Amino acid sequence: MLMAETTETLEDRLSRIHRALGDEQLDAVDAVLADLEPAEIALLLESLPPAARIRLWQRVPGEVDGEVLLHVHDEVRSTLLDDMDHEEIVAAAAALDTTDLAEIFEDLPQQVAEDMLRSMDELQRERLEETLSFEEDSAGRLMRLDTIAVRADVSLETVTRFLRWKESVPDNTHQLMVVDRDGRFVGVLSLARLVSHDPEMAVADLMDQEVDSIRVDMKSRDVATLFQTHDLVSAPVVDEAGLLLGRIVIDDIVDVIREDSEQALMNMAGLDEEEDMFAPVLPSAKRRAVWLGINLITAFLAAWVIGRFEDALDQIVALAVLMPIVASMGGIAGSQTLTLAIRGLALGQISSTNSAWLLRKEVGIAILNGVLWALVVAVLALLWFKSIAIGMIIGAALVINMLAAGIAGIIIPLLLKRAGIDPALSGSVILTTVTDVVGFMSFLGLATYFLL
């Protein structure tokens, strides 16, 4: 029987939930939730104001509480945990596997975390502590511990009997990890080969040894790049000695890619990717005030530069009219370069070996575009103000600012990364300062020198 295709969008579900909650039609709310996966419920919760969010959360079936908490952003998770009693939190967390539990464990109330540890058997506790010992953005935090490993010197029949004894295999298992006597990873055996070859054959005869393994300390972003470039579905995780520790599957990598995309988008505006869209006014205002304050400082710097040329502006009104054009064109040109540089750094495409070439390229682009648009702006300024001098000055200033913007768009993210600062978080603020200051200073400085 074919499943019916769902065409209902998130907006449709939100409308249904709002109407049902407003009309106290709790059965209708339950019906919507029953058709959704935990990740979809998490998205709905993040899309609701606080009061409606809590009311919906109270209707979420207890058996999926843990998975929903896993998918919501940190700030939203905190508000949901505040609404749960001790026993509910323990039950929700207990339903998660070790890797998923480690992701939210540090957000749990201290007493709940202690009770969780006491309720675990020794093996579970050791696995959780091992996972938490790895850095947050590392392969160790991503890996799953449900790996099925077999020895290379056993027969396919032995492996088949072993799987029958287990009765089931973990989700997303399309291959078995092969290890030597000491537990070192040596290759993989696909399930397709296992069931399609002579049971008397040895695993060593069929296993694939040309397999990418992932070091447990590899950054999660680098793991995602490896999955993308090598079209991986799963990959083994090993320690520095080559011992098999676990595996990472594509499901986990999709989450990494999504989170990185959200982080880059939010950081470009100086925001935290975990910020709750429907958080109360006061905490949201406090967070945004920081970057508004930083931007205000840079704006005053640009204003100070303009103030140095007050006499020129008083005598030549055209300068005040045309001045924003120079800063705006430089800002756009710099933003284009900055965006490409940040993307290149995120993908690992920019290093010390090619950054100089990239800088020369951007200088060339800045000069070509600067000259082209300088001619256009100079002609328009000449037609508008009937002054050849003003046209030439704004054209020259435009070339200077676009050149500075191209250079800054490459150098700023490289310097920020070297300093350990996320370029996406503060690069645009610094770039705006550079293009404003250079734009105003070059335009007004040239006008002062040649016209006054």
Description:
Helix 12 (156-166) links the parallel strand 1 and strand 2. The chain is mainly α and 452 residues long. It has 22 helices and six strands. Strands 1-2-3 form a three-stranded mixed β-sheet. It has a three-stranded mixed β-sheet with strand order 4-5-6. The protein has three domains: 10-137, Alpha Horseshoe (MgtE N-terminal fold), CATH 1.25.60.10; 149-251, CBS-domain; 281-451, Tetracycline Repressor, domain 2 (Orthogonal Bundle). The longest helix has 31 residues, at 355-385. Helices cover 67% and strands 6% of the residues.
Core attributes:
452 residues; mainly alpha; MgtE N-terminal fold; CBS-domain; Tetracycline Repressor, domain 2; 3 domains; 3-stranded mixed β-sheet; globular; disordered N terminus
Mean of pLDDT = 84
Major β-sheet profile = 3 strands, mixed
* CATH superfamily membership of the largest domain: SLC41 divalent cation transporters, integral membrane domain
Beta-strand content estimate = 5-15%
CATH fold category name of the largest domain: Tetracycline Repressor, domain 2
What number of structural domains do the residues give? 3
Spatial order of strands in the largest sheet: 1-2-3
Q: Which structural class do you get from the secondary structure elements?
A: mainly alpha
Give me a quick take on this structure.
This protein is mostly helical.
Compile the SSE list and pairings:
Elements: H1 10-22, H2 26-34, H3 38-46, H4 50-57, H5 65-71, H6 74-82, H7 86-94, H8 98-105, H9 110-119, H10 122-132, H11 139-142, E1 149-151, H12 156-166, E2 175-179, E3 185-190, H13 191-196, H14 203-206, E4 214-215, H15 220-230, E5 234-238, E6 244-249, H16 250-267, H17 281-307, H18 310-315, H19 317-346, H20 355-385, H21 388-418, H22 423-451
Parallel strand pairs: 1-2, 4-5
Antiparallel strand pairs: 2-3, 5-6
